[in-house]
Amino acid sequence: MKLIHHALRHLLIPFLLIFTIWGAVFYFLIIHEINDETNDTLENYKELIIRSAIRDSSFLKSHDGLMTRYYIREIPKEEADVNEVRFFDTTTYIEIEMEYEPVRVLQTCFRMADDRYYELTIEMSTLEKDDMIETIATSMAIFYLLLILCVLIVSHWAFRKSTIPLYKLLDWLGRFRVGQPHEPLDNPTSVHEFKTLNQVVEESTRRSTELYNKQKQFVENAAHELQTPLAVCVNKLELLAENPDCTERQLEEIASLHQTVSGIARLNKSLLLLSRIDNRQFPDEKEIRLDQQIQAQLNDLEMLYEDKRIKIDTSRLEPLLVQMNESLATALTINLLKNAFVHNHESGTIEVESGQRHLLVANTGEHPGELDRDRLFARFGKQSQRKESNGLGLAIVKSIAELYGFKLSYRYHSDKHIFQIFFPER
What we know:
Layout: H1 3-55, E1 63-64, E2 68-75, E3 85-94, E4 99-111, E5 117-125, H2 129-162, H3 164-175, H4 192-241, H5 248-278, E6 286-289, H6 290-304, E7 311-317, E8 321-324, H7 326-342, E9 349-354, E10 358-363, H8 373-376, H9 393-404, E11 407-413, E12 416-422
Parallel strand pairs: 7-9
Antiparallel strand pairs: 1-2, 2-5, 3-4, 4-5, 6-8, 9-10, 10-12, 11-12
């Protein structure tokens, strides 16, 4: 959910509650005001009738008008309470309209000069509350919808206007990549909080870039400096193994040491390659037929791992033309294919499929089940203890894919580990 929608949702809930309460209060205030005005009119009418009756006894007759009616009846003294005035709502039958209509009623008692008591009941037509409730509810609903629409439009405009620096910062962060060139943050604002946020983000990205460059430089320097000594060690071990004076035990130790040093040399070479990829030191590009390159690499790997008797299916290997650096194209496919051989079991299978915009490598594995996706493409994310695996093969594949914008994916289906690369349209 976007921030603006989250904020507007929390704004609408109080508005709904406030307007509901306001509508109820508004209704009762109107009813109270209508009743108050009607009561005042009835009071005035009462005074007029009583005064007229006291002056002229002929007014002691009931009167049935269109909007106002009054009824006078004589009552015993015991029932009379001249100080009591009652107001209430009821309905009365209107012959002209042939239906019951709501009326406001005043009921009181008064005493004549002859000490006789009379009850006066005055009825005055008033508004139908059901109709008024419906009218008020409809009007308020329309008013509420229009007001909410205005609030949403104004709030949306004000929110977008106020958060322009935030979205600029988010856009800049979305394009920021550690180790890659990026433009400086240009996000002027007069809001103190946004200024602070800009400063914190710039400082954090600066530190991240600085640490990344230092780490990258260290790895590159270390790998480069180790390359020559490791090559010398391997050569000296090979010369030492050719010494006829070496015993069988010594030859075994030399072979073990040679294997260890060779592994370190391969690891060092992979680290150096990753460092060069991160530094974008492969500018030269050309069109490469990956399908032909893959076929040649499969032939070499099949001979290298012939003891595993792995079955290879290339029936769906179709022409695949990619624009990229030749060395990186070789590294991309050889690491992907070698991973399928190294982590396969004896008599396993490897399927290689390619098309105009995709490459797929599927292989059976040593152990059933999906691999840990969080560690699969990480550097040194080894998920087996094989000596020929240094944990950098798939990391190299991922780095090359990210460099060229290829989409790399992994899934486990039908007891096979499936790695797939999608190439963008040229």
